[in-house]
Amino acid sequence: MKGTEGDAGGFFYVGNSSMKRELADRAGEFDIDFPYEAFDDYEYGCRLRAAGMKSFYLPEALVWHAHEHAPTLAERARSMMRAGESAALFERKHAGPYEWSASCGRHPLRLEADAMYWGARYLLLRSPDDLGRYYGSRLDAAFVRGWRRGQRCHF
Which helix (H) or strand (E) holds 5? Predict the structure, then answer.
């Protein structure tokens, strides 16, 4: 098989993959504790790797993932909040720390204040970098809010 062995930095998206039945049997079924469309694939990928999965990065592969419309910032923020809740559940099942742990140490209001700053800078200077920082801060705040909620409640 052409490609470079690796797991793309730990990311594994089950929807665009195939595997032998024996591997799926060793890893078990999807964990239905995850209530949203976030972290269920990641968690399953961790168990697949532990069961011996080898993945391949194929840069020439093409995948089409169509959406009816481009999500708004508010829709993306709702998705990030659900992802944050799922991340908290993932951490209960698989001890960290993880790359998102540092962001979750910041208060969401601080991240929203950062977003206001970058949004104001963008309005004044029209720098695409500032707009990206605005969006990033808003989405980080939503993720942290979800993560904090997930820390308080058990699904």
Answer: strand 4-5
